[in-house]
């Protein structure tokens, strides 16, 4: 994609296609969405598409530990997307410890997500799986708390949690992500994002993010 807006629209179309197929096949769709500023445009585009929203369940990939209503919370933007039309499953970090919130969320998760949307940080993190955090080594639960990162502890899907995805969609925009994207595409296990399974994955990126990652703005991970 040439620019962030085009990448966001393409990503929204991909998400919508997976959700429609899931509803048609199973009568319900489960999607897990990441936070951060990058997906806001994608969520805006997704909100305008024709979907069977009552059959859609929206889950959080990660969340900052902050009071309910705090603008730092990813939930604020997901609430705007859903607006009561779909079933939203928030990480209840506002009224309990991160450990308790993670345990409760793990117990609620579906067996499979039809799609997990992921972003990519300049440091190679995805979800709230950040370099050096002990959460990277959690293998016995799909949800776990993190240490402090950029001013907040977080609750995040772990690698086992992300492994429940039938499809993974990466949305990556901006020149600041170019180096990390190149490492992701190369299968570099030295960054947290590189440890996410490539099976059933698709990356959508703009030209700036691809400035050092080689030709082609979109494509299945297996085809890189």
Q: What does this protein structure show overall?
A:
With 224 residues, the chain is of the alpha/beta class. It has a single domain, classed as Rossmann fold (3-Layer(aba) Sandwich). Helix content is 28%, strand content 18%. It contains six helices and ten strands. The protein has helices spanning 4-26, 40-47, 75-82, 98-108, 159-162, 178-185; strands spanning 29-33, 56-60, 62-64, 87-89, 115-118, 143-145, 154-157, 168-172, 201-205, 218-220. The strands form two sheets. A seven-stranded mixed β-sheet has the order 4-2-1-5-8-9-10, covered by helices on one side. A three-stranded antiparallel β-sheet has the order 3-7-6. Helix 6 (178-185) links the parallel strand 8 (168-172) and strand 9 (201-205). The chain is globular. 44% of the residues are buried. The model is unreliable at 213-224 (pLDDT under 50).
Secondary structure elements and pairings:
Elements: H1 4-26, E1 29-33, H2 40-47, E2 56-60, E3 62-64, H3 75-82, E4 87-89, H4 98-108, E5 115-118, E6 143-145, E7 154-157, H5 159-162, E8 168-172, H6 178-185, E9 201-205, E10 218-220
Parallel strand pairs: 1-2, 1-5, 2-4, 5-8, 8-9
Antiparallel strand pairs: 3-7, 6-7, 9-10
Keywords:
alpha/beta; Rossmann fold; 6 helices; 10 strands; 28% helix; disordered C terminus
